Amino acid sequence: MPDKYHIKVNEPPPSEVEIAQHKNFNRVLAQYRRSKKSSPLHDSVARLNKHIPVIVLMLVLAMLIVYFAQLSKRRPELPSKPHAPATWRFPPHALPGRAAPFLMTNSHSASWIGAGGCYSGKNGR
Amino acid sequence: MHQTEDAIKEEQQIMERAKENPEVFGFLYEKYYRAIFVFIDRRTADRQTADDLTSQVFLKAMLNLPKYQFKGLPFSAWLYRIAANQVNEFYRNSNRRRVVSIGEEHLDRLFSEISATGKTESSDLVSYLLNQLDQAEVTLLELRFFEDRPFKEIAFILDITENNAKVKTYRIIEKLRKIAKNELS
């Protein structure tokens, strides 16, 4: 197995002259100014980066709210009070002031049932 | 680098001024350039790379100065933290083998710590021992044994707690002791 590390024992440190040759604060300052010049946009994007998940979540929520609001607008409103459809007809014997009879049907016959009794329509009662 | 409290506070004031006027940062650059250059050079063994990385360290320090939070440690600790990260990034992005520089006296100290007295070929043994450790363990060993840094500063550089740094160091020593025992027996 090759060595992971290159071990150097008693390696001489760089001399003061060598270090002084590399030292250049003006170079770093120039780099800093260049970075600062281009940084406002970069900073704002970086700041936005942190909030992207929250922004996406809020957008999805807003879209869902708008979608459901549109959906409820399109659906026809249910009547607040039940009323008779246009085709409803009172049976011939129904009188104002009496409870409305209703039609009860089975496979053999149909009967109007109401507070005043039963009207079958067969025997005329 | 050990500093008095007054010196640390004075540095803090310079940093506050440097936030307003970047040219003031030149004072800190002059003060710490040598230390950071040597720190990186020990880990790369290449002067040009050390020069590039040192410039990057100071540039990053300047750019992030507004975010710096004073925790009672000298400014150099923060620079060392940036430098350690910069070196890690350098090795991550290149296929080079990591360099570990050790002084003879530090080697003796490490061997006495792990009770490895049969040091006939000490450089071979240390190479064998270090190759059993991962990168984070070697970094901790470098800071503690090859550079004599206090645990508080090591903890700050590695962004861990002081206790964690102590426990990790103890475990590394134990690990090396076992490996050395097996190797020498």
What can be said about this structure in brief?
The complex is a heterodimer of chains A (125) and B (185). With 125 residues, chain A is an alpha+beta fold.
Topology:
The complex is a heterodimer of chains A (125) and B (185).
Chain A: E1 5-9, H1 16-22, H2 25-37, H3 39-74, E2 102-105, E3 110-114, E4 117-119
Antiparallel strand pairs in A: 2-3, 3-4
Chain B: H1 5-20, H2 25-44, H3 47-63, H4 75-92, E1 98-102, H5 104-113, H6 122-130, H7 135-146, H8 151-158, H9 162-184
Q: What does this protein structure show overall?
A:
The complex is a heterodimer of chains A (125) and B (185). Chain A has helices at 16-22, 25-37, 39-74, and strands spanning 5-9, 102-105, 110-114, 117-119. Chain A is α+β, with helices and mostly antiparallel strands and 125 residues long. In chain A, strand 2 and strand 3 form a beta hairpin. Chain B has helices at 5-20, 25-44, 47-63, 75-92, 104-113, 122-130, 135-146, 151-158, 162-184, and one strand at residues 98-102. In chain B, helix 2 packs across helix 3 (47-63). The chains are: A alpha+beta (125), B mainly alpha (185). The interface between A and B is medium-sized, with 27 and 38 residues.
Principal-axis shape of chain A equals elongated
Strand fraction of chain B? under 5%
Largest sheet: spatial strand order of chain A: 2-3-4
Record field, number of beta strands of chain B:
1
Total of DSSP H or I helical runs spanning 4+ residues of chain A: 3
> What does the oligomeric state look like here?
heterodimer
In terms of per-residue confidence, which ranges of chain B show pLDDT below 50 for 5 or more consecutive residues? none
Q: What is the tally of helical segments of chain B?
A: 9
Question: What is the terminal separation of chain B in angstroms?
Answer: 40 Å
Low-confidence stretches of chain A: none
Radius of gyration of chain A: 45 Å
State the largest interface: A-B, 27 and 38 residues
Average pLDDT of chain B, rounded to a whole number, is: 86
Shape of chain B: globular
Class computed from helices, strands and strand pairing of chain B: mainly alpha
